[in-house]
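User: Please run a holo structure prediction.
Assistant: Happy to. Please share the sequence and the ligand.
User: Here you go; the ligand is FO1.
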Amino acid sequence: MLVTLCGGVGAARMLAGLVRVVPPPSITAIVNVGDDTVLHGLHISPDLDTITYTLAGMDNRETGWGIVGETWTVMDELAYLGGESWFRLGDRDLATHLFRTERLHAGDTLTHVTASLATRRQIGVQLLPVTDDPLRTMLTLTAATELGPAGTEVAFQDYFVRLHHDVAVGAVRFAGADAARPTPQVQHALTEADQIVVCPSNPIVSIGPLLAVPGILAALTSRREDITAVSPIVAGKALKGPADRLLEELGTEPSVVGVARLYAPWVGTLVIDEADRDKAGAVESEGVRCVVAPTVMDSPERAAALARLVIDTGV
Ligand code: FO1
């Protein structure tokens, strides 16, 4: 069994590569739920949905979220009524949130609802939210915004979408983490995995929430030699999103060396991009084996080549 640790877009691309080189049912993806939010009474799980839509071949590659060819009738009407429309929910995407919310209200777990959606979309890969308990990424902003003065703590989607992640962050907290439990399926996957792959996701707000769930870091640390991470930072920049700025704002060098330093306690091997070849020695000085390869997944073929290489690091 191959287990992946996942945020959203970067992880979805990595998984799209992996399913081209190993049978999808042999892959279990453990996914961040710190980005989850409730809007209009609907439970939205952006990372689970981004991965599901990507593996189902229905993702919107331009936005990096939502469904390709989406229509916006409901959102446009909601905006006309004066409702909250800063977080855009497409007409087809809304069906996912209605389905999930209704099932959760009926007492189903997020793990079970996610499995139902994945089966319906025929994605093959087993998708697991890291926990069925509430876990929410909260960020303390260091400047005043429309949401409050400097020092205000906001939820992830307020930071990411409403404020376009265009504001400095002083602290990150994972609300609910202390009481959250990894699901039995997640615990089993981490114990039984032949290899664990950390997708090129944001180390702080995508992988961070997974590590904050009690028991996960210890389980990973005991599997350190079987864990390969792909750096989400290439030549000092995040390919997408605010990972580079967040690392710097929270005191870690925004480079492959900074990623190696963060991950070294529990990751055995770090794959870095060819653009960072000159930093391979510095990565190894952090105590992490370093592999240099093309890591930018700008086509399915390149994603598959990276997937092959990552799997080979574990052989
Ligand atoms: N991201 C945006 O930048 N703007 C949106 O309006 C937006 C809506 C949205 C709806 C459903 C969904 O699953 C994701 C959505 N995202 C949107 C993406 C998402 O907020 C972030 O990309 C992730 O949380 C970061 O991984």
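The first strand starts at residue 2 and ends at 6.
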